[in-house]
Specification:
It holds the Pfam family Epimerase_2. The protein is an alpha/beta fold. The protein has helices at about 15-30, 45-50, 70-90, 100-110, 135-145, 155-160, 175-185, 195, 220-235, 245-255, 270-280, 290-295, 310-315, 325-340, 340-350, 360-370, and strands spanning about 5-10, 30-40, 60, 90-95, 115-120, 145-150, 170, 205-210, 235-240, 265, 285, 300-305, 320, 350, 385.
């Protein structure tokens, strides 16, 4: 019997982190021929993950250009994948989440009538401009997908409300938790020497990322003003800000924080460094989507520097709190966690609403079932309250 040809397509570091354990699981299945195609929508940060997980793509579109636009990315993905699909003829492609590569890959497959599997399906904010362009990328991909791998019951419910057939949806948990079982090490020593010099036991180390497009301008200005106040008002706080390389973000952050005592401004770290910094830190402040999933797994409170989130489960569980970009709100919520031990304890309880490390296995089992190679019922992910 011929193998099922599954092509995994991704282009950014966040996608790569979450797709890497799935690629490894696909490679382990004797019924599957696994093919990896990267668009390299982000080049350097993508390559770091490929090296970490020992993944060698068969195809690399290498589309990244200086000052690239969403239109340019989409068109280069469509054009690049057309020839690959014609030659390889995969039975199904897998795309992840909400990037422009994700939408472009799903659309290119649809044009060739190739089945589409959507990993991390069903996340919604219900505002097409927040986050932009991710909300419409994932919604349009959902319309194109044949099988949907939702991380949570909430994301499945979103798809059901959009009239997706229940038989086509599987609750798998999030593959990022699979990845963290590989990357996090309690005895980890950083490659970045500046991080090794920080006193994680006696200082309250806050890990910060903030770079989303909708926060450019006033949002980043407000976040930096708030961070300044937090450091000034709490002598036991040390800040590690992983600063995005985009000058729109970087210039503002350095203007406000470059000469600040107890503030470390670092370029984005590779995946292993990032996950282990998160594991050692006191709390996380971010406008990222992925960190909202990763930090609760490690029992770290998260203050989200956005007004809406497509990941409400951790908010409901109490390990994540929305702060927006209002200076006073950010300072108030941060100070509450820094100064109130009970408030910190409540948020830091390790409720993990996003996965148990078995998402990749469930996805592969579901794919085999879709193609009639597995008749066993898939045991879906259910939230377990631990620690």
């Amino acid at each position: 019997m011929d193998k099922i040809k599954i092509m995994t397509i991704f282009g950014t570091r966040p996608e790569a982190i979450k797709m890497a354990p799935l690629v490894k699981e696909l490679e382990s299945r004797k019924e599957i021929e696994s093919i990896v195609c990267v668009t390299a929508q982000h080049r350097e940060m993508l390559d770091q993950v490929l090296e970490l997980f020992a993944i060698t793509p068969k195809f690399d579109l290498n589309i990244m250009k200086n000052k690239q636009t969403l239109t340019g990315i989409t068109s280069r993905v469509l054009e690049g994948l057309e020839e690959i699909f014609d030659n390889e003829k995969p039975d199904m492609i897998l795309v992840h989440g909400d990037t422009t590569t994700t939408f472009g890959g799903a659309l290119a497959a649809f044009y060739k009538q190739i089945k589409v599997g959507h990993v991390e399906a069903g996340l919604r904010t219900f505002d097409k401009y927040f986050p932009f362009p991710e909300e419409m990328n994932r919604k349009l991909t959902g319309s194109l997908a044949d099988i949907h791998f939702s991380p949570t019951q909430g994301s499945k419910n979103n798809l059901l409300r959009e009239a997706v057939a229940e038989k086509d949806i599987y609750i798998t948990g999030n593959t990022v938790i699979d990845a963290m079982h590989v990357t996090v090490d309690e005895k980890y020593i950083f490659e970045n020497e500046e991080l090794n010099k920080i006193d994680y036991k006696n200082k309250k180390v806050i890990m910060v990322t903030a770079h989303r497009r909708e926060n450019w301008g006033e949002g980043i200005e407000n976040i930096c003003t708030a961070l300044n106040k937090i450091v000034d008002e709490n002598k036991d706080v040390e800040l590690v800000y992983l600063v995005h390389l985009n000058p729109v973000v970087k210039d503002v952050v350095y203007k406000h924080l470059s000469d600040k005592e107890r503030v470390h401004l670092l370029t984005p770290l590779d995946t292993k460094e990032t996950h282990n910094l998160m594991n050692k830190c006191f709390m996380v402040m971010t406008d990222s989507g992925g960190l909202q999933e990763e930090a609760p797994h490690l029992g770290k409170p998260v203050l989200v520097l956005r007004n809406v989130t497509e990941r409400p489960e951790a908010v409901e569980a109490g390990t994540v709190k929305l702060c927006g970009t209002d200076v006073d709100v950010i300072v108030k919520e941060a100070n509450e966690l820094i100064r109130n031990e009970e408030a910190y304890k409540i948020m830091s309880k390790a409720i993990n609403p996003y996965g148990d490390g078995l998402a990749s296995k469930r996805i592969c089992d579901a794919i085999l079932g879709y193609f009639g190679r597995n008749n066993e019922e898939i045991e879906e992910f259910k939230v377990k309250y631990s620690k």
